[in-house]
Amino acid sequence: MLKVEDWAEIRRLHRAEGVPIREIARRLGIARNTVRAALSSDRPPKYERRPRGSIVDPYESRIRALLAEWPRMPGPVIAERIRWPHSMAPLRKRLAVIRPEYVGIDPVDRTVYEPGEIAQCDLWVPDTAIPVAPGQSRTKLPVLVMTLGFSRFMTAVMIPSRQAGDILSGMWQLISQVGRVPKTLVWDRESAIGGTGRVSAPAAAFAGTLATQIRLAPRRDPEFKGMVERTNGFLETSFMPGRLFTSPADFNDQLADWLVRANTRTVRSIHGRPVDLLETDYLSMIPLPPVDPPTGLNNRIRLGRDYYVRVDTVDYSVDPRSIGRFVDVTASLDTVRVFCDGQVVARHDRSWAKHGLVTDPVHKATAERMRQALAEDRQRRQAAVRHHTDGHAVALRALPDYDALFGVDFTNPTTKASHQ
């Protein structure tokens, strides 16, 4: 085949210097017909390999027959039906070429996000152990991720659970960091946000306070929020490798430092850096509301004798002087508070452990004083003297005296168990 440089030299010699075809052939050592072909071609020669057959060719008619009836038949099933004897790679390549003829091509338009228009939200669940208490670690702790559509600015925070109150607390924290509210928050069918296909009541109250809307993605359509899905993958591959964490707070501290650097990288799809485009996004968003939206875990119960309340499998002590009264329990991402008649009767740092017990020493000491005072009162009652109708004094006998009178021995384990 004639080389490109020879083709160029032939045209130069003939057109610029007027060298005859015979002389060009002699100088370059090529046939005169080759020289004539080069002079008649306006384009440089291009090597084209003659197409060779494929091992799939003998099976193509049978493949097409199957696709004509079942256009979406999986490749392994097709391989089984046609008794494919080779590896799947060449069969998959041929299916990728011919399947669209039967299924059809579904083109998509490129999505363009206006400033302040949208933020995509998702829960990313890293598979790493995070110490949450002495001797206890948890895996699969959720990380709430939010990506702004126009600027691609990323924010994220680890939260204790996938309950609605914790997710909404995380959303409010991230939105507060940005300083304004996106006009639309996109979520998938997360159970606490819209597992039934409709926005849940807590999520609707949250969105209403912020004057925004929550849009749920269609079922089985991850591309609907592909932007935040790519952010999740970026976190998995660029943030997690090589890191160790001592607590959820340490995880969030390291994540916050990394996000500052990550938001200064150049994103090819927007031809810019998220941190530089954030201001344009910010100016088109909705101002923050004058009051905080409803977030966190909230509960109202009557405090039992054990003076503990449960929040997400962890029990927290309460001032025992509130026993028997209704108390309101509120839990943010980092604090648990208990109120009785508007007064704070307990405050604890929130524990992310499973089935933990958090006791305030002051509450324990108060309970001990209350038990001691009750015991002293009982002793005073037992020592009190009652008067008979005729006027003479009758001393109250101790309860063990009555046990002895009726032949009950509570020191015997068998007898004691039978009376419990």
Q: Short description, anyone?
A:
Helix content is 40%, strand content 18%. With 420 residues, the protein is of the alpha+beta class.
Structure overview:
There is one protein chain. The protein is 40% helix and 18% strand. It is α+β, with helices and mostly antiparallel strands.
Strand-helix topology:
Layout (H helix, E strand, L loop, with lengths): L3 H13 L4 H8 L3 H9 L19 H10 L5 H7 L6 H11 L1 H4 L15 E6 L5 E4 L2 E3 L4 E6 L5 E5 L5 H15 L1 E2 L2 E4 L3 H4 L6 H10 L2 E4 L9 H14 L8 H15 L11 H10 L2 E2 L9 E6 L5 E4 L2 E4 L8 E6 L3 E6 L2 E7 L7 E2 L2 H23 L1 E3 L5 E3 L3 H7 L7 H6 L2
Parallel strand pairs: 1-7, 7-8, 12-16
Antiparallel strand pairs: 1-4, 2-3, 4-5, 6-9, 10-13, 11-12, 13-14, 14-15, 17-18
Offer a few descriptive terms.
elongated, 420 residues, alpha+beta, 5-stranded mixed β-sheet, disordered C terminus
- Percent of sequence in beta strands: 15-25%
Largest sheet: 5 strands, mixed
Oligomer type: single chain
Could you tell me the number of beta strands? 18
Task: Note the gap between the termini.
Answer: 104 Å
Low-confidence stretches: 415-420
Side-by-side strand order of the widest sheet? 5-4-1-7-8
**Share of helix among residues?**
25-40%
Rg over CA atoms, rounded to whole Å, is: 39 Å
Structural class: alpha+beta
Question: Mean pLDDT across all residues, rounded?
Answer: 88
The dominant shape is: elongated
- Number of separate helices: 16
